[in-house]
Design goal:
The chain is of the alpha+beta class. About 15% of the residues lie in helices and about 25% in strands. It has a single domain, classed as Histidine kinase-like ATPase, C-terminal domain (Heat Shock Protein 90), CATH 3.30.565. The chain has 1 helix and 3 strands; from the N terminus they run βαββ. The longest helix has 11 residues.
Length: about 80
Amino acid sequence: MVGCDARLVIDDTGVGISATDLPLIFDRFFRADRTRNTPGTGLGLPIVKRVFESHGGTVSGLSRIGEGTTITMTLPSES
């Protein structure tokens, strides 16, 4: 795309992420206490963030307990 940013927004209706844990979800190997028994490595979001940032983009997350989480990924348009 030329002239506007590309944005991908992913919403879920899961249990949500606590305000304490939300800043940590992009840290490698981070696993919230209540998800330790769920399969995973804690690498998915950190890898996504690194890839987007290496292309000048951003990744951010918003969440509410009991309502779900939104992850927003943005890539800048070509200059």
